[in-house]
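User: I'm putting together notes for a lab meeting next week and I want to include a structural view of one of the chains we've been expressing. I don't have a solved structure, so I'd like a prediction I can at least talk through. The sequence is below, exactly as it appears in our construct file.
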Amino acid sequence: MSATEHGSVAERVVAWQSTHGRNHLPWQQTRDPYRVWLSEIMLQQTQVATVLDYYARFLARFPDVRALAQAGQDEVMGLWSGLGYYARARNLHRCAQQVVAEHGGVFPDTAAVLATLPGIGRSTAGAIAAFCFSERVPILDANVRRVLTRLLGFDKDLASAGNERLLWEEAQALLPRKNLHAAMPRYTQGLMDLGASVCTPKMPRCGQCPLASGCAASRAGDAERYPVKTRRLVRRSESWQLLVLRNPGGRVWLQRRPAAGIWAGMHCVPVFADGASLMGCVASLGDASRISCNELQPFLHVLTHRDLHLHPVLVAGDIAERPTEDGGWFGADEWHSIGLPAPIRKLLDSTQAQLW
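Assistant: Thanks for the context. Below is the predicted structure for the 356-residue chain, given as structure tokens.
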């Protein structure tokens, strides 16, 4: 693709975005890096429709990076609950603290420095720098990667780090070269919008795409083969036994998950690998005649790379002993203000009426 054709790509995307792209989203009405950063982190692996309410609630509680940095982790995780991918929330909190501690509460204005902050990868750094500072840097999120590999006919395997670097170079070459203050935000948003609404994974709407005439995949009629990536996530299944303990006051025993792994650092009911281990814990809680034990309906919780088969057991009554060394009793009024995984919160809400 010649330099002239490169320039044509940028101009077409900018023009298309201004008339056909998304221009109504709340984080598009600002160049405040705090707000753009917050939206970019929330939008990783999450649909726009889901993010909108969370974004508004976060800004209402944490209007700037200092407010977020000063908050407790539990409050941050509690507001995040339901968005999933909880490592994002932990990194969000750490990033805010680092921006305050090391940058005086001001986000760096280059992608290179932004990428050194917790939870900000190269593509996210590029998006923040392009949107807020009009820096001439590319992004390669999933939507943009799909658009560019189809446009260029880039059929190299992106499971290879070397091929990924080549695509970054191609993405850099396609960037606007003039009027960057206005062009970079609109071009970056335009590629995202094309991937989300036109250049979709299945049945792309090539007839609506401003790049169709120069698109290698559209000409060949094989758009769905791009991008090429041979390494796939290997799904695994796990079975967890969940112990839901209620004391006479209706409070539930919760403890923190380990610092690494699924739901790391969040509050959760005790988890056991098998039923025998769970019942062994129940037997240690005191007089069996003073407690009730009921198996609840098992349910499936699907993660990106894992299926969790969850088997809850509700134990309620006069519990004399602490079930674990760490943890505490929490009432229903506290469940929504601490970091609880969404399926655990739903489980507790569904059993709230079952009191003994």
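A couple of points you could mention at the meeting. Strands lie at 236-246, 252-256, 267-268, 271-272, 291-295, 299-302, 306-317, 328-330. The longest strand covers residues 306-317.

User: Perfect, that's what I needed.
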